[in-house]
Amino acid sequence: MTGPGCGRTVLIVEDDADTRLALAEVLEDVNYRPLHAANGAAALQELRAATTAPCVILLDVMMPIMDGRAFRAEQQKDPALSEIPVVVLSAHADLDNAAEQMQAAGFLRKPVELSALLATVAQFCAQE
Amino acid sequence: MENHLVQDELSALRASAELRAVTDSILDYAIVLLDPQGVVLTWNTGAQQIEGYTAEEIVGQRFDRLYTAEDRAAGRPQALLTAALRTGRTEDEGWRLRKDGSRFWADEVISLLRGAKGAVEGYVKVTRDLTRRHTDEEQRRKESTLLTVASVTDYAIFMLDPQGTINSWNLGAERAKGYRADEAIGRNFSIFYTPEDQAAGKPLHLLRRAQDEGRVEDEGWRVRKDGTRFWADVVISRVNDGNGKLVGFTKVTRDLTERRRAEEQLRQAEERLRLMIESVQDYAIFMLDREGRVATWNRGAQHIKGYTAQEIVGQHFSRFYPPEEISAGKPELELEVARSKGRFEEEGWRIRKDGSRFWANVVLSATRNRDGALIGFTKITRDLSERKRATDEMAERARQQSVAAELGLYALQTAQLTLVIERSMQTIRETLQIDDVRILRAGESAPPGARTVRILAPEPDAEYGFLAASASRPFTPNDVRFLQAVANVVAVAMARSQSEEQLRLAEREAVEERGRSVRIQEALLERDEFISVAAHELRTPLTALQLKLQGLESSGGFPHSKGERLGAAVRQTERLARLIDRLLDVSRIAQGRVEMAPEIFDLAALVRQVAEDFREPAAQARMAFELQVPEKVEGSWDRLRIEQVLVNLLSNAVKYGAGKPITVKLEEVGDVVRLSVADRGIGIAPDDVDRVFGRFQRAAPIRNYGGMGLGLYITRHIVEAHRGTISVASKPGEGSTFVVELPRLSASAAAGRDKVPRARA
């Protein structure tokens, strides 16, 4: 999956501040290091500025400025970023289709069960 | 008509009286009457004797058969007739054929026979058998001839010397004149003449003419020995010796008393004809003189024209014409045409004595005497008024029918009733030339004197009203028929207008209904859209809430009571999440967006697993679970959806089971798998049984989605998407049994029916 040294970092790309915060909180509770971005453009900035690439990106689909699909396209164009796995996070009905189209590593349906969230994130950080 | 009658009579008279009497008694001459085509009409005794046929055998046959085959082939019989026709008479000597096939040498004279008006009536053929003369010597021929002559009784045939002295006598002469041979021979033939003729020197005059011209014919009174007179036809022919020197005369006298009698009969026939003409009622038959003045008058003329003979004879016939034709010179023109062409015929108006007109057929014929001089005109007039009236009536009726048909066509093409009625009234006014016609409702009173016809609706016993037409003239049956035809058109137009009105109403209702249903559809779509959006909107805050609560709960370290409350909050958010999921399911179902992902799995195992999940809540509700599930039931279904069905049915059973045992049964019935979930709880009221599975598509109020209804609605749609059925049997207070039947391979089959894209497996 991802290379060593992701350091339990997880990038959360979510426009809803409460949801973003709640995700960050529960991940921090189990010793992940969440990074925040409110949209795709902010996420790209965050990634390029970061010293350590995250283990996984939790990516919302519907966002202002740059949505999940656009971010994913930009990410795949950047060789420095393209290898970072993405888990799509959405309330969208056909989330599974969307995830497939975006060539995501996985998907989580909102509202997200804590156990499911932790199990998924753990998959990408397990080799640490 | 007149001519035929006269000719028929003439022919009959000639045949019967004149010819038959004369010819039948002659044995040595075949005297035969032929019609213009050569068909034998009469056959005398001589003919039978000479030619061998009886009258019965030959009358009605063509005379050709009397000729040899060679002659027939050469067209000789017809040639003889043609010659006689051209010259009046033809003589021929040659072989003729007897009935038995033998030939005889014949002398034959064929004479043209003309009727009174010069028309060809036929031919007289006189044939003598000359076989002996031809084969024997001259002397024997002479003797034979003499014998023959002597035996002729109907002709007085005798010889005179050049001075007119009688020197031979025959039986016919004795019979005609009453003198025996010894009394006559030696006396001058003038004794047969009347004193007047003798005084006028007629006998001698005739002899001189015969001497000069070879032959003289005379018709006149002759005197018998007893002094009585008879009407005779006399032919005196000059007889020469071998050197052409006059040796005497033959005299053939025919007693024409018979003929005179026949002529008398003819006159009587003519008289009868005249009487008949006079008595004819239906034809005005009368004569005009050369100037056009009425000369004779018959009853028909009186009947038709109204004048008596006394009133009209001597008057000019122009008074029968309408003034405009008189001034146009019509009567004179007609006379001129009849004069030049012989005949004039026309149909036109004529005037009766009382001034009234009648439609007449008129035939005007020029009448000429024997010399061809015009003596006047025959006029036959027939009153055709009745016929013309009938014809006119037919024409009028045809015209009215065509007008009615045209109106019908107009009514067919014109939707607006008022236009049809307007046109109908106009049509009646124009066609019948009347001023007032109106449509009245049944029960209204028509103007006095108006003619009415009913306007009857197509349905029996229904009447729209009636047409009332008024005119100063009486209405003919045709007029009434026409009015009825128009009334029928109006009735049909009214009926159509009524049904169109009904149709329009029905159409308007349909449009409104369609509008309503479109609005309902739109409202439904809008609502489903709203549910979908709302559900998605709800999920985002729910995500934060649920994560925070679950994070708190899992971090632990709360006092027991607070931990309990936190757990309750977590369960409530989880329930909220499930509720939102259901709402999304409902909206997806309503929008036809249910996606099936069939896979082959063991339904028995799934039932056991779900039942296991419910073991705990059931135990909490102190309910017993009874499972009647086979070892393995495999089939192709959407696993998650079927799980949803099981969860819904079991949660309902737990919820409404009133703490009583729940039975879950799974069985295989042929290709169908039957799942039943039975509780013994509160049951469902009969009125609600039908509503249990939701009335979503009928825009049921949204509050019906709550509770049980929503889950069962989703359940029903999942089952139906698998081409299965779901039913419930329930009694209030006794519990409910839900039965789901699923075809084993239903999901894949059902997927084909769905319009939604297939989900990936």
What's the total count of β strands of chain A? 5
The unreliable regions of chain B are 1-25, 695-708, 747-761
Number of contiguous helices of chain A: 5
How far is it from the N-terminal to the C-terminal residue of chain B, by CA? 113 Å
Number of strands of chain B: 23
- The CATH architecture designation of chain A is 3-Layer(aba) Sandwich
Name of the CATH superfamily of chain A: Response regulator
| CATH-defined fold name of the largest domain in chain B | Beta-Lactamase
Residue-averaged pLDDT of chain A:
85
Taking strands numbered 1, 2, ... along the chain, how are they ordered across the largest sheet of chain B? 2-1-5-4-3
As a whole number of angstroms, the C-alpha radius of gyration of chain A is 13 Å
How is the biggest beta sheet of chain B arranged? 5 strands, antiparallel
Order of helices and strands of chain A: EHEHEHEHEH
Q: Which outline of chain B best applies?
A: elongated
Assembly of the depicted chains: heterodimer
What does this structure look like?
The complex is a heterodimer of chains A (128) and B (761). Chain A has five helices and five strands; from the N terminus they run E-H-E-H-E-H-E-H-E-H. The mean pLDDT of chain A is 85. The longest helix of chain A has 13 residues, at 17-29. Chain A has a single domain (9-125), classed as Rossmann fold. A five-stranded parallel β-sheet of chain A has the order 2-1-3-4-5, sandwiched between helices. Helix content of chain A is 41%, strand content 19%. In chain A, helix 2 (40-49) packs parallel to helix 3 (68-77). With 128 residues, chain A is of the alpha/beta class. Chain A has helices spanning 17-29, 40-49, 68-77, 95-101, 114-125, and strands at residues 9-13, 33-37, 56-60, 86-90, 106-109. Chain B is of the alpha+beta class and 761 residues long. A five-stranded antiparallel β-sheet of chain B has the order 2-1-5-4-3, sandwiched between helices. In chain B, strands 18-20-21-23-22 form a five-stranded mixed β-sheet. Chain B folds into five domains: 2-135, Beta-Lactamase, CATH 3.30.450.20; 152-261, PAS domain (Beta-Lactamase); 280-383, 2-Layer Sandwich (Beta-Lactamase), CATH 3.30.450.20; 389-593, Beta-Lactamase (2-Layer Sandwich), CATH 3.30.450; 594-753, Heat Shock Protein 90 (2-Layer Sandwich). Chain B is built from 25 helices and 23 strands. Classes of the chains: A alpha/beta (128), B alpha+beta (761).
